[in-house]
Structures
1.
Amino acid sequence: MTEVVSESPEVTVLLVDDNPQNLKVLYETLKDKGYRLLIANEGEKALDLAHRHQPEVILLDIMMPEMDGYEVCRRLKADPETADCAIVFLSALDDLQAKVKGFDLGGADYIAKPFQSQEVIARVRTHARVIRLERELQARNRELQGDQTRILNSISEGIYGLDEQGVIEFANPAAAMIVGAPVEELVGRNFFELHFATGAENPDSLPVQATCRQGIPENQRNIRLLRADGQGFPAEYRSTPKQEDGELHGAVVVFRDITAELAKEQALQEAQALVQEQRDQLAHTSRLTTMGEMAAGFAHEVNQPLTAITNYARVAKRMMARDEPDLDLLRQTLDKMEAQSHRASEIIRRIRRFMKKPAAGKEILAVPVLLEDTRQFAEVDMRNNDGGIEVVIEDGLPDVLADPIQVQQVALNLIRNALEATRSAGSSVPVRVSAGRAGEGFVKIEVRDHGVGLPEDAEEKLFHPFYTTKDEGMGIGLATCRSLIQAQGGEIGFERPEDGGACFYFTLPVAGREVESPASPEA
């Protein structure tokens, strides 16, 4: 899919994502903002569009098949025609190293999925304005210095014009305001000595140096610059080579103070951490609720071996009271007592393992073992619903990377729902739990029931909080399941089999393979 969606002589924005739904959301967000929008759903098409149209801003998904966003970014920055495009990465990855890698390759910004419309609009507007300004500056610098000065003086970002040695030849009023010195005092000073404590002793490794001397465009965020009074401040800058007739004459530097922006980001991170903590608490509460419903069944399970132990103990006492006890029979009786004790201990161990809060981090898990443990948890539900569970595992299935407690909670929830749905339809066919590959990077686990099926509006409501089809349900089970699976980097959904019933599924990433979480639908 490669398409020019709308025409405008203003700013061009290229949207790159292999997920059609994500492209639709981005298009709907930006379509009325005065941009010329281009769309590509794979890396090669994105490179072709970027080379032909030189967009100011590229919203680039990281995880794509065949060529990921990092490789696309590297090629764009290596091409002189597209090197100055502002690349804003889109990803559900919240890993610091993933962000650092993107910035090291020349990315200008990073928007986390699921993205918010206002954030996308604001960041595109900011980067589009900066890139458009840089390109206008280069063109006007070859034409009229007066027009260039008027443009530079009218914007809020600080702008410098530097010669090859970093001497400031031009500074706009915004730069003077940010730095805290009049324009007249800035012009003629060395950029590196003014803004870096080591500028005089070691200028070669400083930012913007490669642009001034080698013509290499740069951009960095959250670097520390000095004001005229020596106080530091966090800044974002973009430097573009200043060329005339093919010769390098220094650099144009656009920069801004991001102190307030970083404070907002910190507040946002703290809010996200609080939301995650609340999600974890909700998930734990959901497990405890499940255990409450299963308590009677587990009590019955534990009571059986305890009753057997009591009876065997009485038999053993009677045998020991004889004048000549049968030691072989006594040994067999004690062995049976030990076996029943192990059975009770295993039941209690399963209960404790399920009830505990998940440990930090994820583990490499064998899917057959995970599903067998879950099937044992569901034995009480099988008896209560007069049903059965059939587990089918694809041969050679790779291990997955996930939190075992959270995944087990999701699988158990789906299995219990399937058993109840099958019983309500009067069917005796076992619930089918299967696991197989889903592409190169995922394992797909399906739970198939033989109930009455799902309502027509299930797609819109089923995974929303507090929506339920059960008379006594709270409607938090499937919403919690969605949150837990997305935290593993997978997705959850359902299908309607042709022969009736419902099939719920979720995916988990294969161990050793980095993947991004798919964007979730809006709740």
Note: Residues 259-320 form the longest helix (62 residues).
2.
Amino acid sequence: MAAVTSDVEVEVRRPRRSVVAGVLLIVWVAAYFGLRGIDTLVLGGQDTTALHRWLTDHRDDVGQGNGFFGAIRVAVDQVVVLLQDVISQPSFDRPVPVIGWLGVIAIAAYCAWAFGNWKVAVLTAAGLGFVGLQGLWQQSMDTLALTIAAVLLSLLVAIPLGIWAGLSDRAFKVATLVLDLMQTLPTFVYLAPLTLFFAIGPAAATIATLIYAAPPAVRLTAHAIRSVPPESVEAARSLGSTGGQTLLKVLLPMSRSTVVVGINQTIMAALSMVTVAALIDAPGLGQTVLKALQTLDVGVAFNAGLAIVVLAIVLDRVTTAAGDRPWRTASVRRKVLLGAGAVAVLVAVWFSRTYVWAAEFPSVEVGSRIATVTTDVTNWLQDVFGGFTYGVRDVVTNALLNPLEALLTGSPWWLVSVVVVALAAVLGGWRGAAPAAVCLGLLVATGVWHDSMVTLASTLLATVVVVAVGLALGVWAGRNRRVDVWIRPVLDAGQTMPPFVYLVPFLALFGTSRFTAIAAAVVFAVPVTTKIVADGIKAVPVATVEAANSVGSSSWQVISKVQLPVARRAITLAVNQGLIYVLSMVVVGGLVGAGALGYDVSAGFAQSDLYGKGLAAGLAIVLLGVLLDRVTQAAARRTHNYEGDKR
């Protein structure tokens, strides 16, 4: 009997990753009901582990003496104190600073005019005048002094590193790896370890700020240098220019606008960090907001938060205008006007050094009125809409947050670890699974596993909302140019505001709770997610969309079958950035009832016997950030490779 053979190849299809992930989650939930409460590693709020106590006992042995770190602390303190003496604090046996409010406003407006234009100068004068009318002049100048000190020190390091990375491929690769890690870490993370070396105070706050603010300047400077057309560089070299001459005469001038954008981003990051650094005794507006949040005084918090926003807008507009200004020699008329303006500034400075009225900002009750009105509005909102807002909070908390948190905190730590590593492997392959396993193992070692899972639950829930809102707004803006034009400035403004500011309105609406931090995190993270999605949708080839329209596809079919699949990599990046932003805000939300890791870090600063636990919580935040970042990036890389294989 003849054998029957066949040349037909049978294709074995692998199950979709979403199906495998769904099965894993179902298995996890089923196992949870059988293993609930076992090996959950719960640690009370005042309880510590041997590691925490060891860190607390040995913190003075690391760098708070008179050695290398002590010398750095003294040097940075002197820079900060010098700037405070000049613009904010009484100094040199005078009851007022070296330069009073009139001189500061005159200098700031003149710089805005010289580097930008007269409109920005008016905005600068009006903005600084407004914070003075709020009764927050000295606090605002303290914040500005710390910001200036941190930015100057940061740029002294960041610009040379950016130039080096722009000129050297090897340096660029190393810098990219380091900067990617630094930009995934929330602001809280930088505070705890630096207090270990530099003690709590302005020096540690300034150093934390300059480290946090440096990455944008390094990255954008390197990008600008590497983006200069090779023809321009070759032309300079053919004329006999040395490497230094090529850098100074060709590369830096042609990179000016992008470098200024990097400086702008550094300033915004520094202002954001300076306010959060109030937790480690940084003076300024952050202290006012922090104390108001701790006492639930929404009116005072709003008044100080408004001053922070005004400072952010002024600094952003000045640096943006400086970057937009054409690179050309000033006309004779402008030189004359600038000279006359310089004389006027000197006169204003002389007045501010001679007369008390020009040195001390007049006492005006605008700030107290703003605080009173805000408090009244808050009480009215709570009376009228409190039933609704608190109802929304309770429904979301009971229906979504509590079950998710119970699943993460009630499951054995080893079960959570196995499921997370398996999900990471499904979504990102070994590139996702390996860092997930390492991070989860280290999370267990920190001794704050339970609090880490509480923070992770809030982060995941907020991220789901952020992605949903960001996708909707991003697709809308990406498909409609008019919408993009209107919404883009709002999104840009949202990204200039420090995290503290977002807590205030939601504290008024929802009170102290985990939901307050989640709501603030959603609003904080939506702008960056929306912009990335919109850019991804706009990058879809027009020919591809027109081909879909030509065969009669509806708008929804074009979106779901063409634009979203083609923009999948951008969407994955949006999820990645949304996660990082949400984690940053959820941690800060520990100040308004979110608890968990954010509370552990702040408690470590406030109570000396909990310092080690706060340091471990800071490390746990780093590990969560790295875990979420590595898994989402691995998923994006695997998605891109899969699409390439299909093509």
Note: The chain has 28 helices and no strands.
